[in-house]
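User: I've been trying to design a sequence by hand for this structure and keep getting stuck. Would you show me what you'd pick, starting by listing the structure so we're on the same page?

Assistant: Good idea, let's start from the same input. This is the structure you sent:
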């Protein structure tokens, strides 16, 4: 009997449409990963409250609700506590990294990044928690 492989689902959150497109294109190229998008943290949390995803890829700098705020909200929800979260940011500082680690980030990528580096982090996040 053949076992059916379930496709993974990624939620990409970024206020910049072109950045969501870059990440979505990479995920499509990787195969077996469906992508949904949110343009801000509020939209992301609304989606997460209603639908299952296997990884959250979130920009740090967004108006209204930062990626760190999204991460903290996700970690406060019991059903999302183990969701792999990959934070993407243009501003790299030791303080930000420390804040993200303290809040429970799974992995952290600084912009600009190469697609191979982003792909490696995505695969690492998915492997850490085979949801």
């Amino acid at each position: 009997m053949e076992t059916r492989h379930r496709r993974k689902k990624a939620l990409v959150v970024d206020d910049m449409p072109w950045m969501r497109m870059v990440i979505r294109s990479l995920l499509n190229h990787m195969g077996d990963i469906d992508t949904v998008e949110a343009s801000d943290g509020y939209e992301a949390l609304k989606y997460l409250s209603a639908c299952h995803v296997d990884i959250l890829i979130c920009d740090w700098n967004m108006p209204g609700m930062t990626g760190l705020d999204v991460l903290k909200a996700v970690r406060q929800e019991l059903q999302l506590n183990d969701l792999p979260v990959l934070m993407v940011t243009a501003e790299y500082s030791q303080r930000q990294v420390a804040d993200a680690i303290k809040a429970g980030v799974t992995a952290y990528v600084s912009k600009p990044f190469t697609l191979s580096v982003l792909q490696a982090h995505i695969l690492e996040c998915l492997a850490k928690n085979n949801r």
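That's my pick for every position. To get oriented when you compare it with your attempt: The longest helix spans residues 17-30. The helical segments are 17-30, 41-50, 67-76, 94-103, 115-128.
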